[in-house]
Write a structure and sequence with these properties.
alpha+beta, five-stranded antiparallel beta sheet, 9 helices, 10 strands, flat
């Protein structure tokens, strides 16, 4: 019986001297023919707003510029709690909340009226006085706010640790009296807001000691400290007209409008006489939630 082997079998068995009638390349090509090239799928066109920053990103960028007034940050209301929660962080404000007497309210209202009416554009000057709303953007609180930290962005998972830290600090300090002593004009770091405020005289040392303890807690969470030489104040008016937006003209609360010297001469004595307030708690506002921690310890300036 004669065994007939195919060319493919002879190649596989390796018969000596056998030369196939086709090349190996041909066999490979015949066994696995190439697939025709696929057409490239065109991707859909991106929307024109793809490169625009989100509302949260714009809000966080604005907050990062910083405003030296806690009250001003609250009335601005940006970024929103919802947008920051999506980003995993929320706006943090730490401040003292103090109730003014009726006499102090009257002095502050008179001071604001003079400063606003003397400005070239009175409508651009907004009130931050408790219980007063001239413009829808104005605050309507019943208390005076005094910042104890910069406006900060707190990660959501830091919320409880921050509250516990502030509670421990409040347990160490005793309540104390503070007194407003003078008028002052401040602008935020980016010069986008200008404020007319009243600055603390009596009680400065106690406030500074309290702030330094808060700074230590913030440092553990890698948050920035307050200013090295803070000007403890309460803002009573604000405007977006600043030294940066009006380089060729004078902004509000400056010459030829009533200067600090004019306000001091007219209202300074009454401010110092009626300006005593009681600092009895530290307030922490995270997003829209406000927690209050009563000062209940025995420490004062140390």
């Amino acid at each position: 019986m004669r065994l007939i082997l195919s060319n493919r079998a002879m190649i596989t068995l390796g018969f000596p001297g056998f030369r196939p009638a086709f090349r190996a390349e041909e066999m490979t090509s015949a066994a696995a023919p190439e697939e025709p090239p696929k057409k490239k799928r065109r991707l859909p066109r991106l929307d024109d707003s793809f490169d625009e920053p989100s509302e949260c990103a714009r809000g966080l960028a604005e907050v990062s510029k910083g405003a030296d007034s806690c009250s001003a940050m609250q009335q601005r209301g940006r970024p929103t709690r919802q947008s920051c929660t999506k980003a995993g962080s929320e706006l943090l404000l730490t401040f003292a909340d103090m109730t003014p007497s009726a006499s102090l309210r009257k002095v502050l209202q008179q001071s604001f009226d003079v400063a606003a009416s003397s400005s070239e554009d009175a409508a651009a000057v907004h009130s931050l006085l408790p219980g007063v709303r001239i413009d829808p953007r104005d605050t309507l609180d019943d208390t005076l706010h005094l910042s104890l930290s910069r406006p900060l962005m707190l990660l959501t998972n830091q919320r409880e640790d921050l509250k516990k830290a502030v509670a421990r600090i409040a347990d160490r300090f005793r309540p104390f009296a503070a007194r407003y002593a003078s008028f002052g004009v401040l602008e935020n770091d980016e010069k986008t807001r200008r404020f007319l405020g009243i600055e603390v005289g009596q009680g400065y040392a106690e406030l500074e000691a309290l702030v330094r303890k808060l700074d230590e807690a913030f440092a553990e969470m890698r948050l920035p400290a307050y200013y090295p030489e803070p000007r403890f104040h309460t803002s009573i008016a604000w405007t977006t007209t600043t030294s940066a937006t009006t380089p060729t003209t004078l902004p509000p609360f400056a010459e030829p409008t009533p200067t600090l010297e004019a306000l001091e001469a007219r209202f300074g004595p009454s401010l110092r006489k009626e300006g005593q307030v009681w600092v009895g708690e530290v307030c922490v506002k995270i997003g829209k939630d406000v927690a209050r921690y009563r000062l209940s310890g025995s420490e004062g300036t140390g």
